[in-house]
Design a protein that fits this description.
- This is Orotidine 5'-phosphate decarboxylase.
- Pathway: Pyrimidine metabolism; UMP biosynthesis via de novo pathway; UMP from orotate: step 2/2.
- It comes from Anoxybacillus andreesenii.
- Helix 8 links the parallel strand 6 and strand 7.
- This protein has one domain: Alpha-Beta Barrel (TIM Barrel), CATH 3.20.20.
- The protein is of the alpha/beta class.
- The protein binds ligand LLZGTKA7.
- The site of ligand LLZGTKA7 has 15 residues, from strand 8 and helix 10.
Length: about 240
């Protein structure tokens, strides 16, 4: 998981996924399946990607009452994904229930999926957070608070922007995973993301993994673009 580049498969169906993956035939990738693809293709898409020996982040961002999240995670655990997630805003009890569900549903002899919590979406700016969520602290404080609650609930890490990686690692420790979307090369358009960073900057900050979607999937040459992101992300690690 550490030092991974995770490709967000934001496609409407599996035909487009497998067409996208054609040039990557020799690569074992870390792939993120989100709501768009999972709601169309269901669990079968996970089985098919795992058969090809890719690692999977199932990004469904569960957020509901603890009992419902427990049941949902128990079911998802059987898919054997490497990483799953919830929204930290669901609270500590909900996050604990998510972990309990995962543990209850993990098949014997298998490792349970790592579970992380979304703090503040990378498409949220400080002003939006304060005005729309009526949160009266800085965005960094809000992210740090959610990260601390996720740690107390026993989760393995968080989804945050690269900009919050250093304070999270200082407060919670270097083993706590920081998975960072909102990654752009300096030549890319930012789109709907607000808190962005280049792969180089994410590496310098110490992010555990970066998530890249459109910069690769919508590139004229996705394979070349993947190589460019990978080179920038891997750089020379200290
Ligand atoms: O805070 C978050 C949480 C999840 N995401 C997901 O990551 C990718 C990013 O895609 P890009 O095309 O590189 O912007 C996407 O699947 C989001 O659902 C996020 O961006 N921010």
């Amino acid at each position: 998981m550490k030092n991974s580049l995770i490709i967000a498969l934001d496609f409407p169906n599996k035909q487009e996924v497998f067409q996208f993956l054609e040039p990557f035939a020799d690569e074992k990738l870390f792939l993120k399946v989100g709501m768009e693809l999972f709601y169309q293709e269901g669990p079968q898409i996970i089985h098919e990607l795992k058969e090809r020996e890719h690692q999977i982040f199932l990004d469904l961002k569960l957020h509901d009452i603890p009992n419902t999240v427990y049941g949902a995670m128990k079911g998802l655990a059987r898919l054997g994904c490497d990483l799953v997630n919830v929204h930290a805003a669901g609270g500590k009890q909900m996050m604990t229930a998510a972990l309990e569900g995962l543990e209850a549903g993990t098949l014997s002899g298998r490792r349970r999926s790592a579970c992380i919590a979304v703090t503040q979406l990378t498409s949220t700016s400080e002003m939006q957070m304060q005005e729309e969520q009526l949160i009266g602290v800085s965005l960094q404080e809000s992210v740090l608070h959610y990260a601390s609650v996720a740690k107390e609930a026993g989760l393995d890490g968080v989804v945050c922007s690269s900009q919050e990686v250093v304070p999270i690692r200082e407060r919670i420790g270097h083993e706590f995973l920081t998975v960072t979307p909102g990654i752009r090369l300096s030549s890319d358009s930012v789109g709907d993301q607000k808190r962005v960073a280049t792969p180089e900057l994410a590496r310098e900050f110490g992010a555990a993994a970066i998530v890249v979607g459109r910069g690769i999937t919508r590139a004229a040459n996705p394979f070349e673009s993947y190589q460019a992101y990978k080179q920038a992300w891997e750089g020379v690690r200290s």
